[in-house]
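input
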Amino acid sequence: MNIAGKVAVVTGGGAGIGAATAAALAAAGARVVVSDLHEATALATSERINLEHPGATVGAGADATDRAAIEGLVALAESRFGPVDLYFANAGILEASGLGDDAEWDRALEVNLRAHVRAAQVLVPGWLERGAGYFVSTASAAGLLTQIGSATYSVSKHAAVGFAEWLSVTYGDRGIRVSCVCPMGVNTTLLHGREAEPQVATATRAVTTAGAVLEPEQVATAVLAAIAAEQFLVLPHPDVLEMYRRKGSDYDRWLRGMRRFQSSLLATEGQR
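output
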C-alpha cells in the first residue's frame, strides 16, 4: 500500500507508539485523525505534527473502547479528509497484578481486545463494499510469548493477535489487509510509568532484560514498512521471531526457561 493520500485513524495517538505512528503517516503524505482518551494530549500531538506538515492531522478525544466514539472518529475523518483507509488500533493498557481481579480483567480486555473488535465491526462492512481497507493491531511480543507479572496483559494481547489473524484469514482475499505489531520494550509510559508497583516493576524488568528498549519512532518506521509490504507480523525486535520459533519447537523446554527467567527476576528484585 502507498500511504500518500490515504486517510488514517490512530487511537492512543497522544503519545508513544501512537504519536510516532501518526507523525510518520503525516510525513508519508497521509491525513490522520489523532485520537486519545485524553483530548488535550491528542490535540497537542496533532498541533505538533501540523507544524511540520500543515493540515495533515486533526486531534480528537475519544474512548477507543466505545462503539459510538469509534463511529465519531470515522465520521470526523470522513468530514475532514475522506473515507478511512487505515485504522490503527493502538490504545493499550497494562494491568500488572498477577492473576488480577474482575475489574482488571474487564479493563484489559476492553482496551486491548474489544476496542479492536468494535473498530472492525464499524469499518469492515464499508471496506468490503469498497474492496479495500487496512487494519493495524498494536499487540505485543507478549501476545506471541507471554508477560511475566501480568496475566491480564499476556492473555489480552494473545487475544489481540488471535483476532488480527482471524481478520486476515477471513477478509484477506476480499481486499482487507491486516498487520499485527508485536514489539518488546518500547520507551513509553506503558513500560516506565508504574515501576513503583512491585508486580509492575517485575513486568518492566522482564521486558528490559529480554532485549533492547526501542524508541517509538523506531517502531513507527517498522510499522510503515510492513504496511508498504502488506506484511502481517511486525516485529520491531527481530529477536522475537527466534524466541517464538523456540517456543513452538519445544513448548515444555520454553516453559522451563521462562520459569527460570522469572525466578532470576524475582531474586534480583529481592536483592534491591
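quick obs: The chain has a mean pLDDT of 93.
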